[in-house]
Amino acid sequence: MGCGNPLRGDDGVGPVLVRRLRERGVPDGVRLVDGGTAGADVASRMRGAGRVVIVDAGAVGVTPGTVYRVPGSMLANLPPLHVLHTRSFRWDHAVAFARWALADACPDDITVFLVEAGNVAMGAPLSPSVATAVDEVVTIVERDYPAPARVASEPGS
Asked: Name one GO molecular function term (predicted).
């Protein structure tokens, strides 16, 4: 699942990666999702999946294009419900929220790849260092997640 806004330069790394994987071919049982920027959508799209890989831009102040691999267990704590709001509900909240809201329908195997963003200005292209990081993450995803843990049905099917 690629998260982010492709209209804001490096913030679009997740959707760019999803597009790249789709162009390369998708194994049976694997579902690629453009998670956009709404954390609630990210949470609901996890329902029934055996494994979820989330890719998004990060901003911790390191060199743009730096890739971090974060196990979902590190994001398991649910923020207090009274501080969650649709404008601030991001994918990191979505992981914890999905564990609470989906219960047994939430996948146990969640991994997040964060790519340090450089330029997130409106209308900016993906920076060269982040484009290189997309290639790196594509290689990792294809190597480490070649097939689904179990086939997830599309919602409503």
From this structure: enzyme activator activity
What is this structure's pTM? 0.81
Q: What is the pLDDT of residues 98-134, one digit of tens each?
A: 777 777 887 888 898 999 999 998 999 999 999 999 9
Q: Measured in whole angstroms, how far is the alpha carbon of residue 89 from the centre of its chain?
A: 14
- Residue 152 covered by a domain: no
DSSP notation for the chain: -EES-TTSGGGGHHHHHHHHHHHH---TT----EEET-HHHHHHHTTT-SEEEEEEEE-SSS-TT-EEEEEGGGG-SPPPGGG--TTT--HHHHHHHHHHHTGGGS-SEEEEEEEE-S---TTPPPPHHHHHHHHHHHHHHHHH-SS-SSPPPPTT-
